[in-house]
Design goal:
Elements: H1 21-31, E1 36-41, E2 45-50, E3 58-60, H2 63-83, H3 105-117, H4 123-137
Antiparallel strand pairs: 1-2, 2-3
Helix pairs in contact: 1-2, 3-4
């Protein structure tokens, strides 16, 4: 949490109210399993994201600052998902099952481009996330 909020209000910049304590606790627990990625940046110091939610970013002058900032950003994102009834991705779960999908070359190219544009590691991660998001919305 930022120094201003001191962790007690569970309120982040831009929110008009704090998250419910149980939602914040669940979100904190979920992001605890996320794999963080830090990249050095000449202007910002470090930029952080997570493999499980590659579109959530934060920065910090030092690696520790960046880790604190990305954990807060991820917790806010996951708490918002939980409030909306969505199921955020879980970290570090072993994936042992596989499905196969046949695509045309054009479909495969479109998925590869979308995966890259949205920051996913590859097509499989993108398709998995998109399909799960769609299945939860239905």
């Amino acid at each position: 949490m930022s120094k201003k909020s001191n962790g007690s209000s569970r309120k982040s910049k831009g929110l008009d109210r704090p998250f419910a304590p149980d939602v914040w606790s669940d979100a904190t627990s979920i992001i605890g399993g996320y794999r963080l990625v830090l990249e050095k940046d000449a202007k910002l110091g470090y930029i952080g994201s997570a493999i499980e939610l590659p579109t959530v970013f934060a920065d910090g002058k030092t690696p520790d600052d960046c880790v604190r900032a990305i954990r807060e950003a991820l917790t806010v994102a996951v708490a918002a998902m939980l409030e909306r009834g969505m199921r955020p991705p879980r970290g570090r779960g072993k994936r042992s099952l596989q499905i196969n999908v046949r695509l045309t070359p054009d479909e495969k190219l479109a998925l590869e481009e979308a995966a890259t544009r949205l920051g996913f590691q590859g097509v499989s991660e993108f398709v998995r996330a998109a399909a799960l998001d769609r299945s939860h919305a239905a």
